[in-house]
Write a structure and sequence with these properties.
The protein is mainly alpha-helical. It has 18 helices and 5 strands. The protein is globular and about 80 Å long.
Amino acid sequence: MAESPPTATLAPTRRPPRPPDATGRAERARGDSWLVVVAGVFTLAQLALVRPGMGLGWDETVYVSQVSSHIPAAYFSAPRARGVPLLVAPIASWSTSTPLLRCYLAVLSGLALLWALRAWRGTFPVRVLATAGGLFASLWVTLFYGPQAMPNYWVAVGALAGTGYFLRAQRDRQDRVALWGVAASAALMSWMRPTDAVWAALPLLVLLVGVRRWRQLRLLAALLAGLAGGAAEWVIEAYVSYGGLAQRLSDASAIQGGLGWHIAITDQVRSLGGRALCRPCTGATPSPATTLWWYALPPLAALALWVAVRARRTAATLVPLACAATAAVPYLFLIGYAAPRFLLPAYALLAIPLADLLVHLVTLPNRTWRPVAVTLVALGLAGHLAVQYAVLEHTVQRTTASREGWTRAAAALHRLGVTPPCLLTGADSQPLAYYAGCASAATSGHNANTTAAAIRHTARRIPVAALETARGGPPSYARSWTPDRAAGVRVYLAPQQRP
């Protein structure tokens, strides 16, 4: 399992490729087995702790409905990209089973983590990579979103793999696998979230363009081709459906509250207790035990860089740290709300330097300090795992209960005569429409896609129900409709649709 890390300074090291031999292949196989174990445990932990039966969330219903043959497609707002719908299409296109979709995504996310860690082979020892995989995979937010139909985990593994392949390509300019890996990783990121991909890849672009020792035309072309290829559909759709690229970016900014200078650090801290979306982000801050790991990241990253400089592998540590920093910038300083999943790419990139630091501490040559370091690291990791498990369990229970509420409300709507084909409008109509098998529509807000006249016209043909608005009461066009309740949800039924 032990491997000697290569020497890396601020300038990438050039080494001629060595011919493979039987011993090298055996060592690589043994090393890969550790990474397979990490990825396998990650997959099993998702299935055991998150549980496949947890229903789909609001954003998930939007993504899954785009490719489902059983559910009308929900309105697809400007910030969203088509990566997740295509990712879930192999299951969602023919099955409405949420447990089956969760199992599929859990296995796929484990394979993706294995791929991302293998991209770093030769840059760090396998024990560092296995530790990094364990650190990232043990975060409650990673476990929670790994089996979900959401884009952030996939941006994270794309960023992790792309940075590893980038350093490989710099070390060996004949490594074509690394070039293709950079392109594929960039395409995966921009396929999921184009703007996040640019932020995560920004340090790599700066190095390739602005630092002569790092310039490599083929690598730059691979990175740009991957970013452009993954974002192509999003850009084309901008001109077809959103009035152009500039308009789509403007609409996306408006939906996110207007991108600009917003210090969201405190908001992110508040979300660490298990809040899926902190908007508006009010309420108490989680306990210090819950947030300690988050506050420890910056000083540990600085210490990891110091250790790397002393070991003459500065580039291999500084590059992922820089990518982690730029990936976090928009979600710490440019939006006015928070969600823990937003920082998954930064956590994935930080895992490599932090794992290198931990391995360094537990392998100190000083026999006096090594037992102390091993004890402190073991206690720290044990406490960290306990906190992550506690937050994950609480989050899963609360989330499952809320989504079971949508299931009960959908069943109650069916008893009231709102059965497919049908239409729901008003607050929370998008997720509830998915559970009820209905279409959804809105006359105002970020998801506006119809008019009041069109809704009234639709009510002459199929069952239509309006949900109570956030202000209380029905939408203006439904004030004369019949009020009722569906499992605690106030609904207003269009005339002539009661059983």
